[in-house]
């Protein structure tokens, strides 16, 4: 950090506004005056605090892996599973891809991120090239840490199973809950801007900066990986070596392509069964909607609503939202940019929670293995559904939110010219 500079220039990641951030007091954060996105936050211990949370999270995860996670008993048969047994059981079914979703999103990626946060925060001596690579991967992986969504899925599956037997939690359930909270907290108090400044000072700029104007109008671009401000024509960032452009390259094309693919896959995801229940010799296929209807008719209204919102409303509204953002950025609609920005943030934040139903089915299929009495196996619909969630997440990531503000800036410029013309 340059301590002699009282202001530090930051380009907003969401609206491209150049903001001069004053020296922050501990525990405060600076937000963008135009779109209110958090630009920089200053924690009391910006490196040690996330590392401490990450370390505790890892310990909890380790404990969670040692003991049984959840159990179910019905008609004298008791079934107890650990986190690793979930993977074992699911990989023996026809749709073993489901085990991969669980393995990566709720164990491997969060654990990897926690190790990275510890190594970066504790000032362990690591070659700079490796540090740069680790930080790059860390922030890319952040959206794929879904441990807390898996936990929510476990709770929902409990409600689904309560009518069929005795549900209980094992010794590792509480540590896993703590792991979820701690890993969320570790990410919360890790500031990307600070972390990169610690690895290397931001590259110096040889031009005058005008605060309150967009980067694009001053021939500047933001490095989306390390938040450095660079000249627009510089395609490779000297600090993190990531390549980039003033706006995401072919953002709309990528977003539309991913959106169309996910829309096509969304049809089989809803029409095909997501799981098969064998009960006393008879098989019953059920789609996502069947699950909601069953829960509703059982009287579990809140859970039926959660599943309905997460699995049916969120993916559909998300696709509509992204399509709307694309159209708006191309000049159709001309909505208030603040409203479009709100939709973007909602789509980004809520989208991953659709994974909850995939995790519910994972837990059901792993836990309900009672032979002839009752057993549940995943069906092909769940794989389609998981892929839809992943594709829509990518679609939201490839969309460049700055296009919304560019459109509005362009409109204002045209208006100003028109007004000048009218006065003249
Ligand atoms: Zn902004
Ligand atoms: Zn960079």
UniProtKB/TrEMBL annotation:
Membrane-topology annotation of the record: Multi-pass membrane protein
Main subcellular localisation: membrane
Signal peptide positions on this chain: none
Compartments (UniProt record): Cell inner membrane
Transmembrane segments: 51-70, 98-122, 143-163, 256-281, 301-325, 346-370, 376-397
Keywords: Cell inner membrane, Cell membrane, Membrane, Transmembrane, Transmembrane helix
InterPro entries for the chain: PqiA-like, PqiA-like_proteobact, PqiA-PqiB_transport
Family: Belongs to the PqiA family.
Protein name (record): Membrane integrity-associated transporter subunit PqiA
Organism of provenance: Providencia manganoxydans
